[in-house]
Amino acid sequence: MKYFILNKPFEVLTQFTDEAGRATLKDYVPVPNIYPVGRLDYDSEGLVLLTDDKQLQHRLSDPQFKVEKTYWVQVDGNPTDEALTKLRLGVQIKGTKTSPAKVRTLEEEPQVWERSKPIRFRKNIPTSWVEIKISQGMNRQVRRMTAAVGYPTLRLIRPAIGPLTLGDLQPGEYRELTLEEVAAIKGLAAKAQSPKGNTRSKSFGGAKGKRGGQSGFRKQIN
């Protein structure tokens, strides 16, 4: 079995082919017969897990198994306590209420790479970073959640899936999981429960990746 993680750059599709000629995973991970676990939006960045382990793919991709994913979200404005509470309790998205989320503001801006296209800044309106942890997989869920409480997403980075973290991987870099990480992610999948159950996770640091990167990425998940 093969297990890799990639730091997916901005404006790259989470698939290996595209008839329109847009950038895909094939441009960054020259490993045959592996597939992404779940998806990450074209305009989002961060951790994508790739494997040929079909059982693991199913467990980690299916929202019913409650595998937690972490997102760092740069939003337009400074969210109020009321807005953060709404995100934690769940918000309405197209007639469906999102499940409770773990949400906190980041006191310091994450030390992440510069995006290939700068975000849209507005004069006299500050931006801030929020960490959101969810286990659902609704289409563009995090962006829709922040918009629903009045704070549109400007930039979205996924630094972790369960116990896996990007570590020092730069945009476009990938690496094979360590034996310890494979054991951890398999253990998480084995413990994963339907919505009535709970999951627990711990963090692992990253190893040096392949392919050239940009500016430093050093901050780890708490």
UniProtKB/TrEMBL annotation:
Keywords: Isomerase. Its EC number is 5.4.99.-. This is Pseudouridine synthase. The lineage of its organism: Bacteria, Pseudomonadati, Bacteroidota, Cytophagia, Cytophagales. Residues 2-148 form the Pseudouridine synthase RsuA/RluA-like domain. It comes from Pontibacter locisalis. The keyword Isomerase applies. Belongs to the pseudouridine synthase RsuA family. InterPro entries: PsdUridine_s_RsuA/RluB/E/F_cat (IPR042092), PsdUridine_synth_cat_dom_sf (IPR020103), PsdUridine_synth_RsuA/RluA (IPR006145), PsdUridine_synth_RsuA/RluB/E/F (IPR000748), PsdUridine_synth_RsuA/RluB_CS (IPR018496), RsuA_PseudoU_synthase (IPR050343), TruA/RsuA/RluB/E/F_N (IPR020094). Residues 190-222 are annotated as: Disordered. It comes from the Bacteria.
